[in-house]
Amino acid sequence: MRTDVLVIGGGPNGLTAAALLAKAGLKAVVLERRETVGGAAVTEEFHPGFRASTVAHTAGPFRASLLTELGLDQDGLFLEPEPRLFAPLPDRRHLSLFGDPAKTAAEIRRFSSKDAERWPEFDASLRRIAAALGEVLALTPPDLDRPRARDLLPFFGVGWALRRLGRKDGQNLLRWGPMAVADFVAEWFETDLLRAVIAARGIQGAFAGRGRPEPPRTSCCRPRPRGAAARARPCWSRAGWAPSPRPWPGRHDASARTCARALRSSGSR
Amino acid sequence: MARTYDAIVIGGGHNGLVSAAYLARAGKKVLVLERRHVLGGAAVTEEVFPGFRFSVCSYVVSLLRPEIIRELDLPRHGLEILPLDGTFTPLPSGDFLWRMNDHARTRREIYRHSPTDAEAYDEYAKAMVDMARFVKPILSMVPPDPFSFDLPGFARLLELGQRFRRLPRLSQHRLLQLMTMSAADMLDQWFETDVLKATMSASGIIGTFLGVRSPGTAYVLLHHYMGEIDGAFRSWGFSRGGTGAISLAIAAAAREAGVEIRTEAPVERIKAKNGRATGVVLAGGEEVEATVVLSSADPNVTFLRLCEPGALGAEFLGEVRRYKFRGSSGKVNLALGALPDFTCRPGPGPHLRGAISISPSVEYMERAYDDAKYGDFSRRPYVDIVIPSLTDPSVAPPGKHVLSCFVQYAPYRLREGTWDEKREAFGDTVIDTIAQYAPNLKKIILHRQVLTPLDLEREWSLTEGNIFQGELSLEQLFFLRPVPGWARYRTPLRNLYLCGSATHPGGGIMGAPGRIAALEVLRDWDRGKVA
Q1: What pLDDT is stored for residue A144 in this prediction?
Q2: Cα A190 to chain center, whole Å?
Q3: Is pLDDT at A217 greater than 90 in this prediction?
Q4: Helix ranges (DSSP H) in B190-276
Q5: Residue B528 burial by Cβ neighbours in a 10 Å radius (0-12, 13-18, 19+)
Q6: pLDDT at residue A87 greater than cutoff 90
Q7: Best to test chain B binding among A156, A175, A181, A185 (most B CBs inside 10 Å)
Q8: Complex-level ipTM beyond the 0.85 threshold
Q9: How much is the pTM?
């Protein structure tokens, strides 16, 4: 067998790479070790009739431009549960966060009116910073040794976007970057549960405790897909700090499968 | 009538004195006001027990800027630095790790633990020197403000970028990693010997409320690596007569330049009129006027206690309140009738002349932090011990010794009880910890002084007992120290400047903040921005 490109591994990244290469006219073959594509983004019937997103159970941050490019956005791929997040306490109190900052603020007011007042500002400030930072996700990291102008140029754009944030947000970004997420949330809120819920987003996938610097940049400010605004209310990614659209279990591999479908329709196998 | 000066410096610590000396040398009439009876701030020598003189707080020196030593001619004023001979780490197993100032011997010693580490040690030392050389000029730089159109600032940043590009490739990669990694992770990349990593990682946590596995601590490690005495990197030393002798040498240089110094002169308030600082009011009501006021106190003391409410904007004060202190260390000073005898290397010997580090493993260090995270002092703390009387016999009666322990962690906020209740228990823990390695210790103690973070706050006005006037964590360094937008020694109150460790480049007996602040004041003066 002879092909232009072999992609090892049929997870979301392998499939995306293959799909984009195929769209560009190359013949791409994806080789997946398991019997199903998806890698860690996979839905399996682990018990007759029960299908679970076996590994990753929320999706994102999915690049909005990819949705369009791969023609995935017709499929109603993402669901947005409301409330986005529900956090119970052992003493029967609980906290829910919603897509709508005003509704979330009302919920937080049951714990602290001071925190409730700060929520919209927190929400807005992070959104602005995330939007500016979001550009970075689509860029190839420049080679430090032999930086090429074409890799570096977009970073001036990001730099400019960051400067445009203004003094306050810009300074906050620089300060928050290296901070422990526990310190970061403590600056904003007094309610322990609210702090914990936001901080929990800061330690997913990282081997460091809450008290250790875990850049809120990477944990809390994952930018939402920009183009998704057309379909979804402004909100950040599934893995972002604010609970946001997340595919239900069972729907999860839909993204991988649709990706695979897009792939086949563009000539890969 | 109030007396009038060109400049008043609040606080007679080493930074305040350095500022005063530089201003006076430029022809200004300067007054230094120190609250305590003795000069030096935390760089102070005191006869705590008759015949025993202790470097009560800060106990070793390495970061003192060579340009200050040169420009103020400190050796002529009595400064003499004696070398600190290596680091000795006893192990519970009966073994030890002893790194000496002699490179070949250290290499042989590390080889005994691991031949691969001995190889790596050479390369590591070279890499760290490379990186320290790169970072070092930053220490004498006024931080640029990335959010104002400040051309000289941009030029400095650009120059920094240029120099970064000229670094060897590997150093570039390492430096980028170093800025954000944890000390333990960084050392894992180099070495396999646990005790070597543990002892080295200790430099990464000093004065912070972080553990050796917390990201950001690798940079603190580098900060401590930049020490230089007589231009040699990574050499720490004692000053003859204790660290207070450094302050006294600077004070002598300042007096020679015409500075007037008053002790037991606590400032109660900074006077302000029309958005400008105009002088100070002393406890007791005496008023002293000056064209500019420099405060070497930390931002909490300066802005929240000394400034009148309303003299500064609410937003600025919000940022000041956000600045993290979180003192995490204490000090135990012992007067000894004889020398401690370590089981792993019995008898007196050169191993006692350097630092003795209780840091047997990386896990030990991290567990010490675990206790502190939840509001207790470490049950088995990291202890850095020195016995300066071996190098400088003038500090103790003949045949007797002073032993000084830097102890981490001792969190300022305790989960239960107060430091007044727990002071002695803390002292006992430290002594028990050392006695595990040197069992004769308890029998030879004549006197002991235990300093908790609360004591550092009460006696030295170090908020929350932070020895660096604020954590040396990445979000509080360079153009973010102490407050973003106000990292250039100036404050929202005109003619009021900060000149202490809470400003760039931070703590340690470095003197750099005091010097740069004074030069900035003079620059403003020349440009007519003062008065």
Answers
A1: 66
A2: 26
A3: no
A4: 194-201, 217-225, 244-256
A5: exposed
A6: yes
A7: A175
A8: no
A9: 0.87
